[in-house]
Amino acid sequence: MKEVAKVSNTYLIIMILIMIAVTQALRFIPFLVFGGNRETPKYVEYLGKVLPYAIMGMLVVFCLKGVSPTGPTHGIPELISVAVVAALQVWKRNTLISILCGTVCYMVLIQFVF
Amino acid sequence: MKRNPKAKITKNDLKRAFIKTIPVLTGYLVLGIGYGIIMQVKGFGILWALGLSLFLFAGSMQFVAIGLLTGGASLLTTALTTLAVNARHLFYGISMVDKYKKARRKPFLIFALTDETYALVSNSVDTDKMEEGERDNYFFLVSFFDWIYWSAGTAIGCLAGSVLHFNTAGIDFALTALFVSIFVEQWIETRDHTAAVTGVLASVLMLLIFGADNFLIPAMILIAVALTVMRKKKGITNEGGGESE
Predict the structure, then answer these.
(1) Looking at per-residue confidence, does B82 or B169 come out higher?
(2) Are the C-beta atoms of A66 and B133 separated by less than 8 Å?
(3) CA distance B123 to B20
(4) Which uninterrupted H or E stretch holds B36?
(5) What 8-state DSSP symbol labels residue B161?
(6) What is the pLDDT of residues B119-129, one digit of tens each?
(7) How far is A39 from chain B (nearest CA, A)?
(8) In sequence order, which residues have a C-beta less than 8 Å from that of residue B73 and are 6 or more positions away?
(9) Alpha-carbon distance A34 to A41, whole Å?
(10) Residue B245 has pLDDT above 60, yes or no
(11) Which of B122, B125, B150, B196 ranks highest by number of CB atoms within 10 Å?
(12) Interface contact A96-B110, CB threshold 8 A
């Protein structure tokens, strides 16, 4: 039984279609507006160049948004693991090694240490 | 529009795309399995869960969707929440307009542009070294693999999730690690760190002001404004941030 017995399947499907429409609109609009045969405006070209750097910073913050210095672990496992990833990346320049070691480090820390 | 010349997908293309997507593989499988299990618990069968993963293909939104669907949210709330949660995709699109301009299989590339896919395909450090045909195949395979990982994870979660006894707590840190390592790699590869610093500072500032649930949109607006102001200051001779050493 769905928890949503009060809502019909048709209603659920309409909700899902709306989510799909909005999500895909957000993905397609930039290409429809700035794509095509016309040359990309210099401003958009500029944003395309600098945004990946800024957004990667934003995504890092987004991933760590739940970390609280006043929480039970004080964010120490996250701090250590992020430092491990960053240090390995600087040292080895191999994304896979950095991610693997960082993730194992984090799992060990939260499962056995904290 | 002139498309890039066709290039057959080679074993090398497959290998490269697979290796580059391994972090996404682990993250998506785990999160997908988690998603499948929750959907199952909430009473949605595999068709609902898998359908959402295949056609919506938006990780965080799908978790939010569970709440909306079970709570019987209004259609307007559904639309606005989706808009708020996924507005960042506008940014991904804007920054990929140029790179995807002549790419083949473009509709699929755009459809599948998730956070993690974006993190990989937007990384010029990787793609600048490739030939046009190779790059096209890379864009496609990364997008396609990520789509399959997410859907496979969902299916596994629905079917066999409850049988899993290995303690996976913390394995989703793989996604954080992915972003951190790309951030660091980009930092090493470029001289101008203004954009990277702007992204972090703006996000932290908005996180402190608006809190974890609401900071993403203000952060994006602040980033866009800040970068625009910086461009005007620097003038067009120095586009800043994108130059490799």
Answers:
(1) B82
(2) no
(3) 11
(4) helix B11-41
(5) G
(6) 999 988 888 88
(7) 9
(8) A15, B67, B81
(9) 8
(10) no
(11) B150
(12) no
pTM for the structure as a whole? 0.75
Q: Is the Cβ–Cβ distance between A18 and B65 less than 8 Å?
A: no
Size of interface A-B (CB pairs under 8 A): 272
Residue of A nearest to B168 (CA): A107
Residue A15 and residue B154: Cα distance in Å, rounded? Answer: 20
Token representation of residue B170: 């913390």
DSSP A110: I
- pLDDT for A91-100, tens place per residue? 998 877 888 8
CB B127 within 8 A of CB B100: no
- Inter-residue contact B226 to B202 (CB < 8 Å): yes
Cross-chain Cβ contact A93/B241 below 8 Å: no
Residue A12: CB atoms within 10 A of its CB come to 18
CA distance B147 to B102: 22
Sign of the dihedral defined by the CA atoms of residues A16, A17, A22, A28, in that order: positive
CB B94 within 8 A of CB B113: no
Q: What ipTM did this prediction achieve?
A: 0.82
Nearest neighbour of A23 by CB, restricted to B58, B196, B236: B58
Interface contact B72-A4, CB threshold 8 A = yes
Q: Under a CB-based contact definition with an 8 Å cutoff, are residues A84 and A102 in contact?
A: yes
The three-class DSSP label of residue B50 is: helix
Spell out the residues 6+ positions from residue A93 whose beta carbon is closer than 8 angstroms to its own.
B185, B188
Other beta carbons less than 10 A from residue B79's beta carbon: 16
Q: What is the pLDDT of residues A43-101, one digit of tens each?
A: 887 887 888 888 889 889 988 988 888 888 899 999 999 999 999 999 998 877 888 89
CB B122 within 8 A of CB B99: yes
Are A26 and B87 within 8 A, CB to CB?
yes
